[in-house]
Amino acid sequence: MSRVYNFSAGPSAFPQAVLQQAQQEMLEWRDSGMSVMEMSHRGKHFSLIAAELESDLRELMAIPDNYKVLFLQGGASAQFSFIPQNILAGKTKACYLNTGAWSEKAIKDAKPYCDVLVSASSEDTKFTTIPDAATWAIDNDAAYLHYTSNETIHGVEFQSTPDAKGLPLVCDMSSNILSRQIDVSQYGIIYAGTQKNMGPAGVTVVIVRDDLIGHAPKSVPSIFNYAEQAKNQSMLNTPATYNWYLVGLVLKWLKAQGGVAAIEQHNIAKAAKLYAAIDASSLYSNPVEIASRSRMNVPFILSDESLDKPFLAAAEAKGLFELKGHRSVGGMRASIYNAMSDAGIDALIDFMAEFERSR
Ligand SMILES: *Cc1c(COP(=O)(O)O)cnc(C)c1O
């Protein structure tokens, strides 16, 4: 077996210990006599898995009691339209911060349901900055303010929770959830696909404040309705049972690492090391303003584009995979989520230096 260092933006690297545990439990989970994927979602064994999943997430994020935690399907992308469908509550406008490709998608999918007011945009800097909060145009009559806490493609991350000026704050946290400490009580909704920092693809976590649900118009199908899903413990239909289990294992792994506070310190150190190596080189550069650099996704370009292909080929020969940047921005991107080890970061930095020297 030869496992590579996987810098994929998502689905992304798993903690190896979690894969090994899943392997051990593949044929029989505890003393259930069966694999998790064979269990009835309403049975006593799976009920335990589901209950631990929710309580571990509540503990890790210190989620207050007046928030529901849903585990849905359809990815973070489905939430782009479920959010306005569920929480406009009769209002006609919603505010959005546009800081990159994922913000743009959220905006596009909200438009059929409400007037989208783009409160601020960093399109003029090619999404390498976060607009100064003093310039944001926030409308008091809007139903909510939506933002993307980490732009996975552009490598731009909010370093603190924005001030929504009294509006419910809605956040696409897909690519930095559980990577840094946040105060959930400052949010109306937090949502995230699990395939970046929490497990495999196929589950979407939605953390929603009680007062925001129950206002969806009748035209919204039950399966998309947060209140209905909450009433049914996200089991209005058959949930992605095996994926819930895997997310649960990742959460237990994270608790064993010391939780979010500890992993945040680790993430700060990992990112600082990689950015320092990029900044010190004359071959590589990162286009994002320093104050808005992402700890999770580190895009970088080579000063000579013709070296891109040789760089990627040489990286793979060293066991460093998925470093190609998103097709929309080009260059390279190293995604270094919670599961990326120091050894992986060190191997990447060593390789980059060696490649630069060999030019
Ligand atoms: C990956 C990603 C998405 C899309 O997630 P899906 O689960 O594929 O729908 C949305 N937002 C952000 C910030 C992402 O990183």
Layout of helices and strands, plus pairs?
Blueprint lengths: L4 E2 L9 H9 L19 H18 L5 E6 L2 H13 L5 E6 L2 H10 L4 E7 L23 E4 L1 E2 L4 E2 L11 E4 L16 E5 L10 E6 L16 H6 L9 H16 L2 H22 L3 E2 L11 E6 L5 H10 L2 E2 L10 E4 L6 H16 L2
Helix pairs in contact: 1-6, 2-6, 3-4, 7-9
The chain binds pyridoxal-5'-phosphate.
Question: Could you please describe the fold and organization of this structure?
Answer:
Helix content is 33%, strand content 16%. Helix 1 (16-24) crosses helix 6 (241-256), helix 2 crosses helix 6 (241-256) and helix 3 (75-87) crosses helix 4 (101-110). The strands form four sheets. The chain has a seven-stranded mixed sheet with strand order 2-10-9-8-5-3-4. A three-stranded antiparallel sheet has the order 11-12-14, with helices on one face. A two-stranded parallel sheet has the order 1-13. The chain is globular and about 65 Å long. It has two domains: 17-256, Type I PLP-dependent aspartate aminotransferase-like (Major domain) (Aspartate Aminotransferase, domain 2, 3-Layer(aba) Sandwich), CATH 3.40.640.10; 258-357, Aspartate Aminotransferase, domain 1. The chain has nine helices and 14 strands. The longest helix has 22 residues, at 259-280. With 359 residues, the protein is α/β, with parallel strands linked by helices. The structure holds pyridoxal-5'-phosphate (PLP). Pyridoxal-5'-phosphate is lined by residues 10, 75-77, 102, 148, 152, 172, 174-175, 193, 196.
